[in-house]
Amino acid sequence: AQAVSAHTVGVKAAISPVDGAQGCSATLLGAMMMGGQPGVYVLNRNTKREQGRKAQLTNISAGKTVASIVRTTLGPRAMLKMLLDPMGGIVMTNDGNAILREVDVTHPAAKNMIELSRAQDEEVGDGTTSVIILAGEFLGVAEPLLAKNLHPTVIVSGYMQALDDALEIMKTIAVPIDTNDPEAVREVVRGAIDTKFVSRYGNLISDLAIKATKMVCIEKPDGRKEIDLKRYAKVEKLAGGELSDCIVLDGVMFNKDITHPRMRRMIKNPRVVLLDCPLEYKKGESQTNVEITKEADWEKLLQQEEDEMKKVCDDIIKVRPDLVITEKGVSDLAQHFLLKANISVVRRIRKTDNNRIARVTGASICNRTEELTEASVGSKCGLFQIKKIGDEYFAFMTECEDPKACTVILRGASRDVLNEMERNLQDAFCVARNIILEPRMLPGGGASEMELAARLKEKAKSIAGTRQFAYKAIADALEVIPRSLAHNCGADVVRVMTDLRARHATEGGVNMGIDGNKGTVADTKALGIMDTFAVKQQTLRTSIEAAAMLLRIDDIISGISKKQRGGGGGGGAQPGEDETFGDARDG
Fold first, then answer.
1. Catalytic site residues?
2. Phi and psi of 341, rounded to 5°?
3. pTM for this model (two decimals)
């Protein structure tokens, strides 16, 4: 009898049409035993596994695919993307993060890329598109290196060295900026949002953003500045009205009316009390039965409720407020007592709004009426009034002295326009915040990327060994930003890029970048196209680190069980598998 070696490993490569760039799946079969016994399966049969070179190449192509989605949205001549979400709503935007948030991907590497733009958005708020384009490009330039049989760890160490050097170079070409000069700050914010939809409205959005940011900026005793725009700068979108009606209030506005029509709707210099407790009689927690033998007892019960309420109202009236705002309900009885004392009441306000009002008026939020003191009354607000805008009533608290919170009112034609304006305003907020926290600038319009590329290419010559290739690849990849800018505004890409390279190779060409409107080479500093240092640093760091991480993956194992795949989970059913439809799938 022929002896069959017991450790023959058969690897069956089944090529299957899988969603995304998942390519082939290799099922690992165990050692075939002698005498033709059935195989031993190490991994589940439905597990897809990609190893070595193939895994790296699928990751690279997934990264490049994600980058190609947002590439056309870079620069002032950027295109918009229209996305339909599963609910049938429409999003029209050119904000990198907003686009990728709506795109549904299955490939793990692509998911990782999308995560990048979210992290960038939360961290610095701008550069969400650049981060994806750069990360995609860094992955793309690694492809020829892998083809040359360079080991991924060598490539990664070259990348990391390039990152350290690039950050050093950035620090040398950064220009400090005076945050007290409104014109300089405005220029920077303009540079960041000129690529967006709102650039048509000139300085409008950038002025709103700078004003709001400066308003909520608080200097801590140790000299640190704290700017919490998310909590204290509320953006209210009101459809209708003129675009020029957009303003930053020196106070706050909320969508509430007073509870009783006879209360005052306009109060000058109001004394404000903020409560976090209900002004209504509290019923027992569990069901309470009361047996009453005579009618007078019922009256007593009602009287007791009334006395209880009166006591609460007296506590409030004692501090002589003009305006009481509570997060909970207010009963008719309490309204009656407070109306008699000529106090206006606003009820059921959001916790977040209440916090903003506290910052503006100087009042502190009280949890029990017994604790009210003179110190907890706010008197910094200059004017309380209720206005009707459209069909709704809005309460305005304005003319505050030194407000530390604000409301930005956006007016626009339609909901889609307003949503896009709000997204752009958020970007502008973040840029303004970054400048105030880190007042350093870099030339925009692809100038700093070209300068980095030129200097890294020069430095690459001094690096020994194969790491030089990876180092040089980063320098080449950085040129993708000016290239995309030139491409998006229809310039002659090759000619413009050659010109730019030549300018950056000579001394004094640091600020030469691309004028995104005309597609010509220009001095970006003279045009006022500047980027914040914080954004550029974060963009470069995130994109290189992400690319390095994806390159180090050499094995992708995805264990989707057959049941899940039948229910629309993973990509379509494999050929040769019985596809489950109807009753079989529903179990």
1. 95, 128-129, 427
2. -85, 10
3. 0.70
